[in-house]
Write a structure and sequence with these properties.
By secondary structure, this protein is mainly α. It contains 14 helices and four strands. It has a single domain, classed as Alpha/alpha barrel (Glycosyltransferase), CATH 1.50.10.20. Helix content is 53%, strand content 3%.
């Protein structure tokens, strides 16, 4: 049996008529969007536009990072081929689509980045498809989804390489595929129930309580704990990734979510961002999932934690008008360096600043009852 969600293309078409007329169309007030955050977003998008190559890749052959560049524009309401950044979106999406392999794999870098780049790029393609109904995107996404199902490991996780084996490698790979699968569901694609069900079990098994209990052990409910990278290593990024996975897979009431939100909120409260040094809070990978975790849970966790995260981004942005190669950018602090690192930091920062606009399908999603039942 398969499940399917209603495609929201009519809503997106209506929104597209309004894009460009109000930069904060869906924002709930100044606690979400400020004049300073709007200006920072526009400066970031301008950096991405100025520094994109003619090929569309920002000097990076990493299809996941190039996809993030496209998503930054999409999240701010810029459709492919339309408006001031329409051609920039086209170039980046074309760069990715032209490099999709016959198997459906979206990776042209080292094979050790197969499922990182594949999951991240497939997520962005799903968002773009949900906003445009472009059949080129649809065909690539269909193949990408089949590959995700084919390479799921026996325990429900995924490996770095596009291959099926007994055990998945770590939670960071699972969250990439979770985003891709949910992106596709929101855009009307079918996803096998058994893939989702097994993935939910795998994600829960990465939870570890401070009392030493793990995964599905009832003792893990007692006291604090959080999601881990591999069952042992606890990081802020993995706390956020676990929350994102459970939300994307419809496990909205899972008790692990609240425990990891406590971890996230504590780290946001500790944020101290030097002004104008260009470094994103945390690192780009962590920032990307922290922002999504608090947004998807919504309510008080979003209202409490988003403003300081937003303001830290605004404060950190590089302001160097005399240097167009840097002005308006952010850079990753850990994983990627050089121009690709600036692409990573700037794209993720723009995405977070654009979240309150709620243009992306993933930001307009509601709860899906069929998904909830798969975790029971």
């Amino acid at each position: 049996m398969k499940f399917r969600t209603r495609c929201c293309l009519i809503l997106f078409a209506v929104c597209s008529l309004l894009w460009g007329t109000s930069p904060a169309l869906h924002a709930q007030g100044e606690w979400e969007v400020t004049p300073q955050s709007e200006q920072a977003l526009e400066r970031g998008l301008a950096w991405l536009a100025r520094n994109q190559t003619a090929q569309g890749n920002w000097e990076s052959d990493d299809l996941g990072l190039v996809s993030l560049g496209a998503m930054a524009f999409l999240a701010a309401g810029h459709m492919p081929g339309r408006g001031p950044y329409g051609e920039h979106v086209n170039r980046s999406l074309d760069f990715v689509l032209e490099r999709v392999k016959p198997s459906g794999l979206i990776n042209s870098a080292d094979a050790q980045r197969d499922m990182y780049n594949h999951g991240l790029a497939a997520f962005v393609l799903g968002q773009a498809y949900g906003m445009t109904d472009d059949q080129r995107l649809g065909r690539a996404l269909d193949k990408a989804l089949k590959l995700i199902a084919q390479t799921q490991c026996e325990d429900g996780g995924w490996d770095y390489r596009a291959r099926r084996q007994r055990h998945g490698h770590d939670l960071s790979l699972a969250v990439m595929q979770a985003k891709a699968l949910r992106s596709a569901v929101d855009s009307g694609f079918e996803v096998r129930e058994d893939v989702i069900r097994l993935a939910i079990q795998s994600v829960r098994d990465y939870y570890k309580a401070e009392n030493g209990s793990r995964g599905l052990d009832e003792q893990a409910r007692l006291g604090p704990g959080q999601f881990t990278y591999d069952g042992n290593r606890s990081t802020l990024a993995m706390a956020a990734c676990g929350v994102v996975c459970l939300q994307e897979f419809g496990q909205y009431d899972d008790w692990r979510i609240g425990k990891n939100l406590d971890v996230i909120q504590l780290e946001i409260e500790r944020l101290r961002t030097p002004k104008g040094n260009g470094e994103v809070p945390f690192d780009a990978y962590t920032l990307y999932y922290v922002g999504q975790a608090i947004y998807q849970v919504g309510g008080e966790p979003w209202k409490t934690n988003y403003p300081p995260l937003r303001d830290a981004l605004v404060q950190a942005q590089l302001r160097r008008p005399e240097n167009p190669g840097e002005d308006g950018s952010w850079r990753d602090t850990r994983w990627v360096h050089g121009r690709p690192g600036m692409l990573y930091g700037t794209a993720v920062s723009c995405f977070l600043l654009a979240i309150p606009n709620r243009y992306l399908p993933i930001l307009q999603e509601g709860k899906i009852e069929g998904l909830q039942q798969l975790g029971e």
